[in-house]
Amino acid sequence: MQSTTCDVFVIGEEPQIMITKADNSDMSVDFGVLPEECAKEISLKFHNRGAASIPLKLVTVHQAQDRLSTFVLLDPEKQKNKNMAESEVSRELTFTLKTGDEINVTVMFAAPPMRLLTKAAQKGFVKLSGVLSLKLIGIIQIELESFKLIGSVGTTKLGIFRPAIPMQLAIKGPGKTDTCHLPIRNHGLVPLTLDLQLLPSDTEPISMTVEPGKVELQPGEQVEPIIRFTSSRPLKEPVQRMLQITMQPHGPVYFVEVTGVMTATGSQEIRKPKFQPEQVVATTKDSLYKSESDKHLGKALSYQSSKGCSSVKSVCSSGQSKCSCEWHSIKSQKSNSGGSTAGEKLNVRTTHRQLVWGSVAVGKSVTKSFAIRSEDCSKLAVYVYVEDKLHSYELIDSDGLVMGEKCITLLPKKSHSFRVNFKPREIGAVCGKLVFIIQGIHLIIPMYSFGGHARLIAKGVPRDGAGRMWLMLHQDPHKTVWETSFSLQNFGDLKAFIKIKPISKGFQNMSTVSLIVEPSELVMLEGTSAKIKVTYKPQKQDLKLLLNNSMKDVIEVAALSLVSGDEATRHRLRRIHEKNLDLAKRGVNGEHATHNIQLDLQPLCAQFLGEDDHGTPDVMSLKDPQDSALELYNAGVNHQEIILLLENATDGHSVDASQAFQSMYQYVVNLSTTRQEDLDESPGSCEWNIHPSTLTLQPPHLNSVPVHLWTYGVHKQHFEVVVVEHPPGFILNVSPNAGIIPTSDSVELTITCTEIFMPQTTNLNFWKGVVKIYIENDFKVLNICIQYPPTHKKEVPSKQLVPRDSYNVGHHAHSSVHVASHSRTSILSTPALRKKRLTNDQLSNNVHAGTGPKDLSCHKSSRAH
């Protein structure tokens, strides 16, 4: 063997990257001082002046407060959408710069709230820093250049004086003009820039404007924008507008409702109220999230001592709260600082004894509502605050303001509503509590939730236009066995569980024993996938009967019921189930176990394949009450269905898969009659209806009621019925639950309620159920009311009857043991991110006090909820 040796020379060049930015500084990018929760962007241009393409990576490194991600990079490609999403913001950005090319990269500084910078926030200003590093990608990454990132945030506080809520302008006829001032003051330490805009835009003949559209406020400065209203023609209806106040750059958005009316000539002039004390609508301060008992108690006592001169009014002082129809006592804890005498009784109730959330994705938010009510004969001064170490809970007043603490006046026999927004900042269990200080007594509402989510996606399963999933079974050429498979992938950040169960579909005589799913129960780690195999082995006589009696090209033989969710929720349900079983073994009749009778938790709580013996350790810190199983189940357990199909081939053999899919698609959509005009003529909400939209059942005398689903459309419509909410103690069934509405015709649906257990009450009560009817691109809601016990056999009860179930706080507890309640599942709502909406109904009788003279006398409102 002969070898040859040669010398190899590699000639390269130094990377020639030219970086330019707006200012003249060489080694730093200074964002200046920003208000809290605002963001500023600075663009950097990278130009490759060399002769070779260069792979580059930009990385932001935080020297402090690393978890907050204050300095981030915006993807230049995705930034073109002008609608920034989570995937478009990151700490790293990789790109290749070709010869002569250039790229603009945006660096953003997001000023965090001062409450998250607790140690440095006492100074009023916090300086944050980081480093932007440009690296050459290779076997060994080489840093080519680095820039120092500097940004500061200062205490931000915005105050507004309100003449009325909503702001009302009145003109006496066409061509007249009325104006109203809205004083705004900057109480913070940072200059503020505010954009003002009225939404929606004006249409002829109405003109409502705000001047100026942009204001700049120095610390301590006050401005008074003018809102002007006029109309060139007579108006019969009031004009509703929303004044949008946006803090720049890219900061929070607030809304104030504005109403314009036209009065008849000669009518009595509308008296405008005088300016009320200033209301702080956006404030972040040092003491906002501190929860020392003595400190909060001192604030509460200070507030109560000035009851004779306070002007704080309850938002809901004019009627009942809409949160719930059940009122419960909440756990009381006597303060060590005094404030009430022994034996004193507080008649205060709440719609919820505890607030429970399922698993919520990090960065997302879920809101729950509740209310407190006073049964006392005198006014009560109430101080409320949130105690939460992870800062994942936000207390929102009924006027839409996000706050950490608040003082209100609770009028006799009246209620006040609140909302609590849960927005997790990290994965894991989150515990918190709402504390009410009334006359020196702490009333506590515990809160339990979990951060993170599981998202299971079935791949290899086609869907039709209605979102239904279909799966074709393929025959083994040498066996009378049909097989198919699909994969499941967990795209979430929590472990996920899946339970697959065969169910009968279509041909009812077909036995589900011949349908095998492997695996049928599985726990999947985050970011992993699993393959599911389905085997169908029918008996010859069943298969022959099935194929001979069907005229369809594609036959539905069965379906797979997929029950999935995150492991954290399943472990929480398991703990509740085991506790109820333990109470049953000891012969204790758990008063809350009846709430979970609707759920069969045993199959869900069994040991699954791939389940870790240690489970989820964080779940052990959540003390979910026994009656919260149904609420957790509805929030964290998903139900899906995959329909299994066989192709009815005339020669007894399966045909090409594409033909099978086409047959299935024609069966579902009917391609021979589908035109673009048909799609344009999809029925609107006015072209179909359900009658009646509300019905009342009186078991055991009236257990079923027919309703009619009709359409005036020119085409037949597929419909599907889903029971969204079952009344406590009853199961609702709808027959039929799917089908077709003929053209300009109707279909009769029968609503039946089945009693599971008899509610032990002698008072007249109502329980609510909800059914949704879906057609293409639309749905309607059927509200069902269960009256028990019935007043008469055939009489429909009055809907204005107020439930009497309630509990009184009759003693003071010296511990923080939480008592579970009979509260039902809350209706969740998702408010717009960082937008605080101030609506007419919520704020019409509410003025929050700032500083100065106070008056507790509240006029009685004639409005009824």
Automatic annotation (TrEMBL):
<feature type="domain" description="Cep192-like">
    <location>
        <begin position="686"/>
        <end position="787"/>
    </location>
</feature>
<dbReference type="InterPro" id="IPR054089">
    <property type="entry name" value="Cep192-like_D3"/>
</dbReference>
<dbReference type="Pfam" id="PF22076">
    <property type="entry name" value="Cep192_D6"/>
</dbReference>
<feature type="domain" description="Cep192-like">
    <location>
        <begin position="468"/>
        <end position="612"/>
    </location>
</feature>
<feature type="region of interest" description="Disordered">
    <location>
        <begin position="832"/>
        <end position="865"/>
    </location>
</feature>
<dbReference type="InterPro" id="IPR054090">
    <property type="entry name" value="Cep192_Spd-2-like_dom"/>
</dbReference>
<feature type="domain" description="Cep192/Spd-2-like">
    <location>
        <begin position="346"/>
        <end position="452"/>
    </location>
</feature>
<dbReference type="InterPro" id="IPR054091">
    <property type="entry name" value="Cep192-like_D5"/>
</dbReference>
<dbReference type="Pfam" id="PF22074">
    <property type="entry name" value="Cep192_D5"/>
</dbReference>
<protein>
    <submittedName>
        <fullName>Uncharacterized protein</fullName>
    </submittedName>
</protein>
<feature type="domain" description="Cep192-like">
    <location>
        <begin position="163"/>
        <end position="261"/>
    </location>
</feature>
<dbReference type="InterPro" id="IPR054092">
    <property type="entry name" value="Cep192-like_D6"/>
</dbReference>
<dbReference type="Pfam" id="PF22073">
    <property type="entry name" value="Cep192_D4"/>
</dbReference>
<dbReference type="Pfam" id="PF22067">
    <property type="entry name" value="Cep192_D3"/>
</dbReference>
